[in-house]
Design goal:
heterodimer, A: 89 residues, mainly alpha, 55% helix, 0% strand, elongated, B: mainly alpha
């Protein structure tokens, strides 16, 4: 399988969408099943994938979250594409 | 407190503008069973929810609904972007265009403005959770209706994702109504 460092921007964003969705979905499940051990393992797995993918994206393409912003000589946070721009932009 | 993520929860990449379907889908932004209603309902109800775990669930689902609101706005934006006044008028969009141009404004498909009376925050745990389960079903039916009216696969794909989330959230609210979460 491709690592996050081998992915191009579109592939990495797609990967972030997938692993982040897994985190959102299992978070809501755990809210009502706080002792489900398998679900807790699933959460641990996907939150790690999400953290490393978010860091890789910020390093290569700019931050998607303020916590991964690491500006050097330019404020890239506000220069990132807006998520609703879509395929025509 | 919230943090913003500069991405959509699920991608929206529409290449064929179509104001006629934008007018229909807009209802899931500011209509009676739309995503603004959903988010405001859960985020308002949580303060009086006596069970901490259920208040947490309302926060997490209410937060996800904010992301759904953004997806619907992205769909409407992409469906109307770059169209001329003549094209918008031909699609039945002139009454919206005259007030909002191509801006995003919360209204139902029939033009009724967003209204907080579309949802309730009753301050009673059972009442609020049953309202929430009903709300998820109403939104699911609206997405079913949209899928009967819209054929463009680039539009149907994110709509199907949003429809699925209504079903999952219905399930979670049903679980919140059980004993485990009141401990």
């Amino acid at each position: 399988m491709m690592t996050v460092n081998q992915m191009n921007q579109a592939q990495l964003l797609h990967w972030i969408d997938m692993v982040s969705f897994a985190v959102v979905d299992i978070t809501e499940y755990l809210d009502t099943h706080p002792q489900d051990e398998e679900a807790l393992k699933y959460f641990d797995h996907y939150i790690d994938l999400r953290r490393s993918a978010m860091r890789a994206y910020a390093d290569k393409y700019g931050p998607l979250t303020i916590d991964t912003a690491n500006p050097e000589n330019y404020w890239t946070w506000s220069a990132q594409p807006l998520p609703w721009e879509g395929g025509n932009c | 407190m919230w943090n913003y993520e500069r991405r959509l929860q699920y991608p929206v990449n529409i290449t064929r503008p179509n104001a006629k379907i934008a007018k229909i889908i807009m209802t899931q932004y500011g209509g009676p069973d739309g995503e603004i209603s959903a988010s405001m309902r859960y985020l308002s109800q949580r303060y009086s929810m006596p069970y901490r775990k259920v208040a947490g669930l309302l926060t997490d689902i209410g937060t996800e609904e904010l992301a759904h609101m953004e997806m619907i706005a992205a769909i409407v934006r992409q469906l109307t972007k770059g169209l001329s006044a003549d094209e918008l008028e031909a699609a039945g969009f002139a009454p919206y265009y005259v007030d909002h141009t191509a801006g995003i404004w919360p209204q139902a498909a029939g033009g009724i403005p967003f209204n907080a009376c579309e949802f309730q925050s009753k301050g009673d745990a059972i009442t609020d959770l049953f309202e929430d389960m009903a709300a998820e079903q109403k939104a699911r039916v609206t997405y079913d209706n949209i899928l009967r009216l819209v054929k463009d696969p680039e539009v149907c794909d994110p709509i199907r994702f949003l429809r699925q989330r209504e079903i999952v959230h219905f399930q979670r609210f049903g679980e919140a109504d059980r004993e485990d979460c009141s401990k």
